Amino acid sequence: MHELPLVFFTVLAQGTVGLFLVLACLLMANSDANRQQLLNKLLMVVLVLLGISGAAAMTHLGQPLRAVNVIFGLEHLSALSVEIMTTSLFGGAVFTYVAMVHFGILPKLQKLVLAGAMGLGVLLLLAIANVYTLATVPAWNSGWTIFQFVMTAFVVGIPAAALMLRSQSVSLGAFQKNTDRALATLGFITLGLVLVGYPLYLFWLGQVDLPANPLGLFDYHGSLMLARLGLLFAGLGVWVIAATRGNNSAVGLAAVSTVLVLTAELCGRIFFYDLHMFASGM
């Protein structure tokens, strides 16, 4: 599909923001120097993932070298221009914080920069959702678009953070185990919100005045939705159950969970982009 690069960009960018917010909250709440050093190193993963998501978005452009034209769109507060600039500012803020910590620059201002990056991360989630809240696409033009995009950040970001922390379980010790259990609880709450919210979204979608049943728009849509819910439940459910029962250091389990939920969100996003077929005038 033509929108596949955007599928990867939106899911990876949102998941990366979720991962960053979890790690940033841990940094804000922790004063141990050794733990902070390890957590700061994990933020390099955030920069790598953000770079990959940005590269995916660039492949969608017919002429990538004209991406600089986004600056002119800011004059009219173009949603796409705001999204791209917010992505750049978020990445720049995370890089600035990592560089400040690595080189010991202005220690008293580091937490302020980290807080600013967290704020930009939240703005990025809203900016991406704003691009797709279009009156010309009735299936997108609702608060459910924001709900789905924000939930992706937590659905992907929480198990990804658990994976990153489990990779450092030897160094982090009891802190990692306690954090893993806390993340599992948060993951359970997130799973509950999605399993309640997504069926409600599909019910709302069925009430929208569309020329055809969105679940029957393509032959694979029904299977895609079942796969998304099944992968999501398996990915989060297995990890949450294992973590709450004391299995808090198995890196492989967290990796499988992250891959499953990432695949689930990609399935859901493909369905979402297919709904643009219902845009006015098409």
From TrEMBL:
Pfam families referenced in this protein's UniProt entry, alphabetically: DmsC (PF04976)
KW Membrane (keyword) present: yes
GO biological process, one term: anaerobic electron transport chain
UniProt keyword Transmembrane helix present: yes
Lineage top rank: taxon: Bacteria
UniProt entry keywords in alphabetical sequence: Membrane, Transmembrane, Transmembrane helix
GO cellular component: dimethyl sulfoxide reductase complex; plasma membrane
Gene Ontology molecular function: any one: dimethyl sulfoxide reductase activity
Entry's transmembrane regions: 6-30, 42-62, 82-105, 112-132, 144-165, 186-205, 225-243, 250-272
The protein, known as: Dimethyl sulfoxide reductase
